[in-house]
């Protein structure tokens, strides 16, 4: 007898639970809709879920759903399987070449938009999620995204084109290919220490690019490079904003102060964890408080 969509969903949920997936039911449902869209050749809206669960499953749906559930049981992230991730006000293409945009990173976008800016530089842009989100809100601003990975830059360019944002992308080791000054510099750099990598979830440790996760050392190398060079690339009054690991606030704040930046500020995410450090380029040589 042909199984219904509901039979497939129940079986998939059990399989993912046995594989150690914490959000097994939610992942199984999201992947069911994705598989139904792939099998039918067009996206399936969520309001059709009840109908699809009650109906006998098409062979193409069964085959596609088996494939994506097997990938998830192997701990591949849902966003990589579907190729999409919602962030801020848009959906971004995601591949194994880029870091999966996290909801907590939206704090950086929110704080960056708290003041006007005419130019922005995103260091380690990855999928382009931060830069594109900012430029979509400030279409008159000029934006540049830099990344060491050509594959990541290809994803970012496609996301910018799809979302309709005009941005420039450069292959660069931090500021190496950047001569300009900006009103705003943002970055979500690799901040996981090498000895912390084994403790990460398999979805992160085994599937996301290590270049975007760790510096291979103490997790602070990127901040040292960015903070030291930022003053030469900020306009007077311009801001530097970086996402940090939960225990890195004091160290990153010290690096910004040592670079001569002022108004150094630490912000927490919705979970109460230290998440963001920002500082300002002094408008004058005497304005270096903070």
UniProtKB/TrEMBL annotation:
Q: Which Pfam families match?
A: MTS (PF05175), PrmC_N (PF17827)
Q: Which residues form the Methyltransferase small domain?
A: 105-192
Q: Which SUPFAM superfamilies match?
A: S-adenosyl-L-methionine-dependent methyltransferases (SSF53335)
Enzyme nomenclature, EC number: 2.1.1.297
**Per UniProt, what is one GO molecular function of this protein?**
nucleic acid binding
Residues annotated to bind S-adenosyl-L-methionine: 124-128, 147, 174, 188
Report the catalytic activity.
L-glutaminyl-[peptide chain release factor] + S-adenosyl-L-methionine = N(5)-methyl-L-glutaminyl-[peptide chain release factor] + S-adenosyl-L-homocysteine + H(+)
InterPro entries to which the protein is assigned, alphabetical: DNA_methylase_N6_adenine_CS, HemK-like, N5-glutamine_MTase, PrmC_N, RF_methyltr_PrmC, SAM-dependent_MTases_sf, Small_mtfrase_dom
Q: Which GO terms describe its biological process?
A: methylation
Indicate which residues the UniProt annotation says bind substrate. Answer: 188-191
Q: In this protein, which residues make up the domain named Release factor glutamine methyltransferase N-terminal?
A: 7-83
Keywords from UniProt, A to Z, are:
Methyltransferase, S-adenosyl-L-methionine, Transferase
The record, for NCBIfam families, names: hemK_fam, RF_mod_PrmC
Q: What does this protein do?
A: Methylates the class 1 translation termination release factors RF1/PrfA and RF2/PrfB on the glutamine residue of the universally conserved GGQ motif.
Q: Which HAMAP family does the protein's record reference?
A: RF_methyltr_PrmC
Q: Which family does it belong to?
A: Belongs to the protein N5-glutamine methyltransferase family. PrmC subfamily.
Q: What is this protein called?
A: Release factor glutamine methyltransferase
Q: What is the species listed in this Swiss-Prot or TrEMBL entry?
A: Paracoccus limosus
């Amino acid at each position: 007898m042909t199984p219904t969509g509901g039979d497939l969903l129940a079986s998939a949920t059990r399989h993912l639970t046995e594989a150690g997936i914490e959000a097994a039911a939610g992942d199984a449902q999201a992947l069911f809709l994705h598989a139904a869209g792939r099998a039918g050749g067009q996206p399936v809206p969520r309001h059709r879920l009840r109908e699809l669960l009650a109906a006998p499953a098409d062979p193409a749906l069964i085959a596609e759903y088996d494939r994506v559930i097997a990938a998830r049981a192997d701990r591949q992230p849902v966003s990589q399987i579907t190729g999409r991730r919602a962030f801020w006000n848009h959906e971004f293409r995601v591949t194994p070449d880029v870091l999966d945009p996290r909801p907590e990173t939206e704090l950086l976008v929110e704080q960056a938009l708290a003041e006007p800016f005419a130019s922005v530089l995103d260091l380690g842009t990855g999928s382009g999620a931060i830069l594109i989100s900012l430029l979509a809100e400030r279409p008159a601003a000029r934006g540049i995204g830099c990344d060491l990975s050509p594959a990541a830059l290809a994803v970012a360019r496609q996301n910018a084109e799809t979302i309709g944002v005009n941005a420039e992308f450069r292959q660069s080791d931090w500021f190496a290919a950047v001569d300009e000054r900006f009103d705003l510099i943002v970055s979500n750099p690799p901040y996981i220490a090498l000895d912390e990598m084994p403790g990460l979830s398999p979805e992160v440790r085994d599937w996301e690019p290590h270049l975007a996760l760790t510096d291979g050392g103490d997790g602070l190398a990127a901040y040292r490079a960015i903070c030291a060079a930022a003053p030469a690339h900020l306009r007077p009054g311009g801001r530097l904003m970086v996402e940090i690991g939960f225990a890195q606030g004091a160290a990153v704040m010290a690096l910004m102060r040592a670079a001569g930046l002022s108004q150094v500020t630490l912000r927490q995410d919705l979970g109460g964890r230290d998440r963001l450090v920002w500082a300002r380029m002094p408008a004058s040589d005497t304005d270096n408080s903070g």
